[in-house]
Amino acid sequence: MTPPTASTPLVVREIGSDEHLDFVRRQRSVSFLQTPAWARVKAEWRHESLGWFAGGELVGAGLVLYRQLPKVKRYLAYLPEGPAIDWDVEDLPPWLRPMAAHLKGRGAFGVRMGPPVVTRRWDTATVKAGIADPAVRRLGDLAPTERSHAGARVVAQLRDLGWRPLAVEGGFAAGQPQFVFQVPLAGRTEEQVLAGMNQLWRRNIKKAAKEGVEVTSYDGVAIDPELKHFHDLYVHTAERDHFTPRPLSYFRTMVEALGAEEPDRIRLYTGRHEGTLVAATIAIRVGAHAWYSYGASSTEKREVRGSNAVQWQMIRDAIAAGADVYDLRGITDTLAEDDPHLGLIQFKVGTGGEAVEYVGEWDLPLNKVLYKAFDVYMSRR
After folding, report:
1. Coiled-coil intervals in this record (predicted)?
2. Separation in Å, CA 302 to CA 149, 178, 299, 340
3. What residues does 164 pair with on adjacent strands?
4. What is the β-pairing status of strands 266-273 and 164-165?
5. From the CB of residue 381, how many other CB atoms can be counted at a distance below 10 Å?
6. Do 11-114+361-379 and 118-147+167-358 share a fold?
7. For helices 224-241 and 248-261, angle between their N-to-C axes, nearest 10 degrees
8. How many C-beta atoms lie closer than 10 Å to residue 55's C-beta?
9. pLDDT of 196-249, one tens digit each?
10. 16, 135, 184, 376: which one has the fewest Cβ atoms less than 10 Å from its Cβ?
């Protein structure tokens, strides 16, 4: 991405989905929530692809979703895990001010975004030590193994520009997760990644193979016949683990939209034991970033370790595709023994990866009265 200069200030304007997709294809990592296809998944929102231009060259892009304020034709402009701009620059105002001006001209009363910028990382050994220490209740109680100066600079500049961080309750942000768990893959072989997992994960992967769990992956039109089976197991998982499941229609739309954009953008994985579906997952990849997006598992036959088998195949495929990272998505920042989310981070820690904190989601009020009204409306829902 080419930084702007005094002689070539950045210009922000709407771009077509093809131009947006061409830009995404040139990047090593862009969130799947910032692809043109994601607009089709969120069809209930108005959308727009934005481009940042320096001297006629497209140097940044973002997907904007417009959420309307009830009874008023004014909008919250939302860029989930975006935009895809050069966040490493020393000076952010030339990038963010023209974006805010453009969105205000489109009727936005406020802007919400989630910069894909890391602030801190904790390796597996550090997280495991924190879980074992009763005095440690949150990731923030632990010294990070890596602290990002670029992340600190972004946070400071956002505050100076009038952006407000969204409150995080119970470890989860209101929108996209601020804390995730990732397995670094760049420069590593399957053998090295497997060796980095804990003994339980390695044993479970071996047991699944011994028990005869068969893992199959599907892409393109081959996904559709299997999607109903995935969804049935996903609903079962939701009932067991007490969360609200998404409807089958949502997954059909997601598969169709992302699959049409790139042939290998989205894949469905199934794990079967003696013909019985015991685990199923959905994986997404954009460039060198691979995500575990949704997962389901049966309560019966848990002893055959179908979930571990499916996860391992997803990781292997990510390595084969040249991915730099395998992203297991959200975790909470809580490590306390009595926290109900502790099991989630313990499962992910077994992969031998790292806990990663992003700068989180930030709001810029453009019309303070309407922004306050929206804030009140959302708090009462």
Report:
1. none
2. 43, 30, 6, 20
3. 363
4. unpaired
5. 4
6. yes
7. 130
8. 13
9. 999 999 999 999 999 999 999 999 889 999 999 999 999 999 999 999 999 999
10. 135
Q: Where are the domains of the chain?
A: 11-114+361-379, 118-147+167-358
Phi and psi of 160, rounded to 5°? -65, -30
**Fold category of 118-147+167-358 in CATH:** Aminopeptidase (3.40.630)
Angle subtended at Cα 88 by Cα 83 and Cα 89, rounded to the nearest 5 degrees: 100
Q: Could you give the C-alpha distances from 236 to 80, 245, 289, 300, in angstroms and in order?
A: 29, 9, 29, 11
pLDDT in tens, 285-316: 999 999 999 999 999 999 999 999 999 999 99
**H or E element that contains 218:** strand 214-218
Do the bridges between strand 289-297 and strand 276-286 make them parallel or antiparallel, or are there none, so unpaired? Answer: antiparallel
Which superfamily, per CATH, for 11-114+361-379? Answer: Gcn5-related N-acetyltransferase (GNAT) (3.40.630.30)
| Residue at token pair 């193979």 | 209
* CA gap 359, 177 in Å, rounded: 10
Phi and psi torsions of 354, nearest 5° = -145, 145
Q: Record the tokens describing residue 330, joined without a space.
A: 């959200």
Q: Say if CB 267 and CB 279 are below 8 A apart.
A: no
State the residue for tokens 């995730």: 180
